[in-house]
Amino acid sequence: MSQTTVTEHQAHPFTGVHVPTTLHLREPLPGLPGHTEFDVTSLDDIGVLHAIRSVPAAGAQPVRLFVVVPQPFFPDYAPAVSTDAVAAVGGPAERLVLLVVVHPADGPHPATANLLAPLVVDPVTGAAVQTVVDEDWPLRAPLA
Predict the structure, then answer these.
(1) Pick from 6, 58, 103, 141: CA 20 to 30 A from residue 110's CA?
(2) pTM of the entire predicted model
(3) CATH code, 59
(4) How many domains, the chain?
C-alpha cells in the first residue's frame, strides 16, 4: 500500500489549519453506525479544539465527540497516510488536514488523543475518513 504525508496549509492564524463547519464521513466511525454527517463547532478562539456533533437519521440520538488539530500538542506528528485514505476523501493530499479524536480528562486520568487513527479531512468539501496509520503512534497520547 503506498502512502503520503499530509501537510497542513495556511488558514487559521494560530494553527494554520482550516477546519470545515461540517464533516461528511465516507464511512461511519467504528462503533457509530449511521453517523456520517457531523456539525463542527470550534470551542476555542485559536482553532485547536472542536466539538463534532452528528446529524443522525430520524429517531437516532446525536453523538458528540471532541477533536483537536494535533500539531500544537504533538509538533512532530506527521503520520504517513495511505493513498487509499487520501483517495477516499477526494482532495489533493497537499490540501488535506488531520484531526485527532480526544478522550476528555476523567478524574485523575488526563485527556488523551488518538494519534493512531486520525481523521483525514478535505477542508474545502468537508469529506473525511478515519484511518489507522501503519506507524507506531499511540492510541491514547496524553495532551500536554
Answers:
(1) 6
(2) 0.86
(3) 2.30.290.10
(4) 1
